[in-house]
Write a structure and sequence with these properties.
With 437 residues, the chain is of the alpha+beta class. 39% of the residues lie in helices and 23% in strands. It contains 13 helices and 17 strands. Strands 1, 2, 3, 4, 5, 6, 7, 9, 10, 14 and 17 form an eleven-stranded mixed β-sheet that branches. A six-stranded antiparallel β-sheet has the order 13-12-11-8-15-16. The protein starts with 10 loop residues before the first helix and ends with a helix.
Length: 437
């Protein structure tokens, strides 16, 4: 939400806006003052170097053998040649100084506009502590975080029932959770990765009981977007004694739920390969040329309200949208209770289209939107899909829907929280703030 309806700001905000505009002007003046008309050549060279590097990267991904080697050489040599030309012209220091001053302008601009950005805080519900919590812990997850942080002992000291999974004998965690509910558990929780979290969260939502996320996995993106402390997973156990409840959405594919996302396309095809687990890098390099050029794998078709994308190489359907305009916040969701799926698809069929991706959200091959339903179809009978990191093959078409407010998540009352999204750099608004008293 933008607070630009009022041109006034508080003093610190106004001074930050003045610094942003002054630094922006200084950055341009530095280029013009020391490089003169050469400054336009500097900018053109920089853009050309980036374009050649992007084109070289695309050719490297879609070629093999000598062609791949030459493409990689181009991707590395293009920016190196630009720097060499700057040095030869004695203008490298000008370019670096101008970039440094521009970085100050951008940073000050974000600081000034942050007060205009209102991030909706999740609604917290006061709840009594659970009487019979039940936790499932994966001792191998996250390199052994369960043992390293003493999660089992701390949970048992709080009176929680638990099952420690046996890595040598795989168990059906959803069945374990259902058995626990049948035996009277009034809260479910998982210490493990997002794939296990999703399976048990689905059972908790199905029975309408709360769920605790203990980030003992490798990445734990769900915990990140809930504002939990991923560096110390034991802090999540505070939710059993001093917790509040958040009602968040879940994504659905048939009867299966996902807490983060479902991915389709090149990545999903590659990870299905039996060789991927033993040799990831070589498997990716071997398979990508055929997958990206539609010689292998399904040719996808994606539909949502107002959107249709034919033959994208990558599709990500997420439980609430990821930030895409904020590079610092890529891979994060500002909220989990918006009632929408996020859709991100990428379609690149040539080096020129790869270069266009440098334009970010304005690139024709990049589609981003929100929807309550996304349908992914293919030219075959089955579609590889990665659901919260787990590789599956599902019958086509695959229908993704949102399940609003389905999951009651119990979180500690005191927790790090979700950082505020970085505001869009609005120079007109900065001008208003700079001139206000």
């Amino acid at each position: 939400m933008d607070g630009g309806s009022s041109t006034r700001g508080h003093p610190a905000q106004c001074w930050a806006a003045r610094l942003a505009i002054a630094a922006g002007v200084a950055s341009v003046a530095l280029l013009l003052g020391f490089a003169g008309v050469k400054s336009f050549g500097l900018l053109a060279l920089g853009v050309a170097g980036l374009a050649l590097a992007a084109a070289g990267g695309w050719w490297a991904l879609t070629r093999r053998g000598l062609a791949r080697v030459l493409a990689l050489a181009l991707a590395v040599a293009a920016p190196a040649a630009v720097i060499a030309l700057y040095v030869a012209a004695g203008l490298l220091w000008v370019a670096l100084a101008s970039l440094a001053v521009w970085a100050v302008a951008v940073s000050a601009g974000w600081t000034a506009l942050r007060a205009d950005t209102v991030s909706p805080a999740p609604v917290e519900h006061a709840v009594p502590p659970p009487k019979r919590p039940f936790l499932i812990m994966n001792p191998r997850s996250g390199g052994g975080k369960v043992g390293r942080f003493g999660l089992r002992e701390k949970a048992e000291a709080l009176g929680a029932g638990l099952v420690l999974l046996d890595p040598e004998h795989p168990q059906d965690v959803a069945a374990l959770a259902r058995d626990a509910v049948a035996s009277g558990a009034d809260l479910l929780g998982v210490a493990g990765g997002d794939g296990t979290q999703a399976l048990v969260a689905g059972v908790a939502a199905e029975h309408g009981i709360p769920f605790v996320v203990i980030p003992a996995g490798t990445r734990n993106h769900f915990a990140l977007d809930l504002g939990l402390d991923r560096d110390d997973p034991a802090r999540s156990l505070d939710a059993l004694t001093d917790g509040v409840e958040l009602h968040v959405d879940l994504g659905r594919i048939g009867e299966r739920v996902f807490v983060n996302n479902a991915s389709f396309g090149a990545y999903a095809v590659v990870v299905q390969s039996p060789a991927y687990r033993d040799d990831k890098i070589h498997t990716i390099l071997r398979m990508l040329p055929d997958v990206l050029t539609h010689q292998t794998g399904p040719r996808l078709n994606v539909r949502a309200v107002g959107v249709a994308v034919d033959a994208p190489q990558g599709v990500l359907v997420s439980n609430n949208p990821y930030r895409v305009g904020d590079r610092a916040g890529l891979g994060r969701r500002q909220r989990l209770d918006g009632g929408f799926l996020g859709l991100l698809s990428v379609k690149v069929d040539s080096a020129a289209q790869a270069v266009e991706l440098l334009g970010g959200g304005r690139a024709p091959g990049l589609t981003t939107t929100t929807a309550v339903e996304v349908v992914v179809d293919a030219d075959g009978s089955a579609i590889p899909v990665g659901i919260d990191g787990e590789a599956l093959t599902l019958p086509a078409p695959v229908r993704c829907t949102v399940w609003p407010g389905a999951l009651r998540v119990r979180v500690p009352r005191v927790r790090p929280g979700v950082p505020r999204a970085r505001p869009r750099l609005d120079w007109r608004r900065l001008g208003q703030l700079a001139l206000s008293r």
